[in-house]
Amino acid sequence: MKKFQVKKPDIKGSFHKLKNIKKEDVKVYWMARKERRERILEERRNSAFARKMRPVYQFMNRISLLLHALLACMINFAIEAISRHSAMEAWKYMTGTPLVFLYNAFMIFITFSVVYLVKRRMFVRIIISVLWLALGVANGYMLMKRVTPFNAQDFKVAKDGITLINNYFNGVELVGLAVGIGAVVIWVISMWRRGGQYNGKLRRLWALAGVGVWFVVYGIVSDLAVEKRVVSTYFGNIAFAYEDYGLPYCFMASVFNTGITEPNDYNEKTITEISGNREITKSETGRAKDELPNIIFIQLESYFDVAEAEFFTTSEDASPNLHAMYENYSSGYFKVPSIGAGTANTEFEVLTGMNLRYFGPGEYPYKTVLKNQVSESAATALGALGYGTHALHNNGGNFYSRARVFNNVGFDSYTSKEFMNILQTTENGWAKDDILIQHIIEAMDTTKGQDFVFGISVQGHGDYPEEKMIENPKILVEGIADEGTKNKWEYYVNQVYEMDQFAGNLVKALEERGEPTVVVFYGDHLPTMGLKAEDLKGRYLYNTNYVIWDNIGLPKEDRNIPSYQIMADVLDRLDIHSGTVFNYHQQRRKTKNYLADLEILQYDLLYGEQYVYDGKPPITEGHMAMGVRDVTLKNVIPHLGEGYSLYGENFTKSSKVFVNGERQKSTFLNNTRIDLPETELGEEDEIVVVQMGSSNTVFRKSDAYLYQNGELTVEEGTGTDKKKSWVEQLDEEEKR
């Protein structure tokens, strides 16, 4: 048997050749490669197979438009089958709504028109096909992990999403994804090298004109499709929209259709009439200053009253505290803009009073207009009356660009996960909500007067596991036959129970505080459980629940209310009339053209000339500080071997230590101690502790401390300026 021998690589010889290579040698090498490539292509063109196929290729070129149409239909079917996780569902979609299917296929067909501009037509066809199929694969994979389809906004939160990647993907899936992407890239590169070229004469001007004509035709067809209601420009629920209108249309709508389109009758005269000669911009209240209560809004992640479900029962009441509040305080259904996802959009409607319906389909204003532009909100409205304004969230500060958005809508402070020592998490890794109570109280303690607090919970977040993860659940679910589905609901119901305990504990803490206070609890959307209208007593998927607790004797007034009206409604009950949009709701809610005029007003405020302010906008720049507590250092103790222990106050897992501007390897032990195992300190070294968010965002810096004779000396006033916007300070530092 012949032995297999492996030739030893001549590394030394190769290095010697590389070291002595000349410019002329490189030119000769690449010329030889080019000649060899041309020779191979010529041999292929003149081969027997090529001669036999030449008439076939010529015929295919003549009917290429028809073949593109067929390819577009095949790709459209493939991406829908992948997205729906079923070829049968894709077939039902195609045969059940053929006009929608053909409209989406026509969109794909249009993209193939660019191949006539180049010689490497086959390669360009492959690239276009891969991009469309990649879109389908991304959407299908996303829908395995969450209820929201893949859309343009995912690109805008990609950096923030990386920090949560372990909540959605395991190691095997990540490796498979990387291998798959690598394989596709290698294949595409090989097709660039091996793919043939068009041998006919290129008529680029005619081809370019043809591309233009096809896009004009597409515009006409799109207008007809909207007019005949084949597709819609409004997505009440983006997941349902993808099912009804197809992935290509919905994804492209999320890319190009953002913001509010300028209304036809938008002008200064119209705004003056809508605003009652700008009367709605006033800030006033019928209450004396010392009678104004604290106002707290708590957005409960994925919360709804599970007693509303008709297909299962629970072993005991999952929401005893909130149910008691429903009985004694104002409550009702809470209409939200989305189902199963869209937390930031419910926030947007509550905080601004604006209706999301007028924005682009699937748009998150947090990631578009509010990320870089200031706007009125409940924070500015109540801040104008002397309230301290605080936002809190037990998740990452950068997610959905909240840190920048909250600065741009006028909050004084934002306490995110980076400023919390979270010790308790759910079995899925989300922070439990009880941590919010101490930080709400701390935020209120920073001001002498009344406070507005906007708290966002995260405990109820999906994905909800099909396997049993809670060993001894407090609440048992009965009436669901499928074990996996039962486990999902049992996990969710027990999170609801703990969220209810958080609500009860918060009310107790506020009662002990003894200040006049109003608290609004509400759910941001239904959980990602595939619920149908017939599963719920209310028979409506856009409803969650709300309740307004108070200790000032507000009369109980139960009614159902949409999220964009809740702030105006609560302020009206308190005889507070502040904030342009909130005043508009209070004055115009039951009048003619209420919604049409609201759209015009929203356009003026966010995209127009701001005629309503008459040159005097209530907010021109943010001033928000991240967190409400400074990190302070007390001393630093050397280890017996290498490294130090740093002692101080208000450390968290997000505290990062810098010595002379260089980040140190550190181990967080508790809120008073961080170990620096590899640090070497010298005389006059400068130590700074930074509260750092995702993407290495500096949220807040401690004062600098000098290491002198084994002691720490503070350089006061060198940390983050709490009277100045953290965003402004970050931008200034990045420019240096």
TrEMBL record:
Location of the protein in the cell: Cell membrane
Region feature (Disordered): 717-736
Cellular component per GO, a single term: plasma membrane
Domain Sulfatase N-terminal: 293-574
Recorded metabolic or biological pathway in which this protein acts: Cell wall biogenesis; lipoteichoic acid biosynthesis
Transmembrane segments: 59-79, 99-118, 123-144, 174-192, 204-221
Superkingdom as given in the UniProt entry: Bacteria
This protein's UniProt keywords: Cell membrane, Hydrolase, Membrane, Transferase, Transmembrane, Transmembrane helix
Major localization listed first in the record, in broad terms: membrane
One of the Pfam families matching this protein, by short name: Sulfatase
GO molecular function: hydrolase activity; transferase activity
Membrane topology designation: Multi-pass membrane protein
Entries under InterPro entries matching the protein: Alkaline_phosphatase_core_sf (IPR017850), OpgB/LTA_synthase_biosynth (IPR050448), Sulfatase_N (IPR000917)
PANTHER family: LIPOTEICHOIC ACID SYNTHASE, PHOSPHOGLYCEROL TRANSFERASE I
Name of the featured protein: Sulfatase-like hydrolase/transferase
Species, as recorded: Sporofaciens musculi
Organism placement in taxonomy: Bacteria, Bacillati, Bacillota, Clostridia, Lachnospirales
